[in-house]
Prior knowledge:
Structural class: alpha/beta
Strand content: 15-25%
Strand order of the largest sheet: 5-6-7-3-8-9
Number of domains: 1
CATH architecture: 3-Layer(aba) Sandwich
CATH class: Alpha Beta
CATH superfamily: P-loop containing nucleotide triphosphate hydrolases
Number of strands: 9
Amino acid sequence: MNMEEHVIIETEGLTKIYNGQIAVDHVSFKVMKGEVFGFLGPNGAGKTTILLMLLGLTEPTSGKVRVMDIDPTRDAIKVKGLIGYMPENMGFYNDLDAIQTLRFMADLNGIPGKIADERIERALKIVGLEGDAIKRVGAYSRGMRQRLGLAELLVKEPKVAFLDEPTLGLDPDATNRIIELIENFTREKEMTIILCSHFLEMVQRLCKRMGIMIKGRMVAQGTMDALAREKFGLDQNEYTLEEIYMKYFQET
């Protein structure tokens, strides 16, 4: 099979301009099937804007984008049916419990009742919320809400998932649990994931390849080995991802 047949996400010269300000500046990259691709960069670097264009929630000013061989600009509804999106701040109806929340999401995605119930039960067990399944989401901690967001992905079973700062504001134990859940997604579901995060240790653990975004441009992309050799002339065993990232950041 040709390597190009494994490409799930591809952009070419992707650009977005808001009110004369360049948010994303000619970004090109590919994500392969079953890969966890990491987006690194400070706030305002353009990471979330790229996700919104991949989802078809905002149109590119110029450039090309394909998700599972679909143009999200032209067929956003079809793309949304194949993708799971976990934003930085999960939005739920606070007066619903976890089961009601997941059933509502399943209904929106046309998942039949019996199949939905089986997936909901399994998902709540996997993310460790089975004991809080009938507790109102409004009483959930941030970590519990993040786990509920991952449960939504398990129920929907998308081919591709976009995770935007999935561990932001969590304590170390909750962070480690989220990381383990994401690892399970790729291992058991062969889910392709784009992960945006400031938490470099998580990106280093989960992502074989990553792209560094600074001021709307992707200044580098590749494996840690490749990025380390480019900046330091040595492989990744000599440097942490934080050291590699800071080198790019300081020089840009």
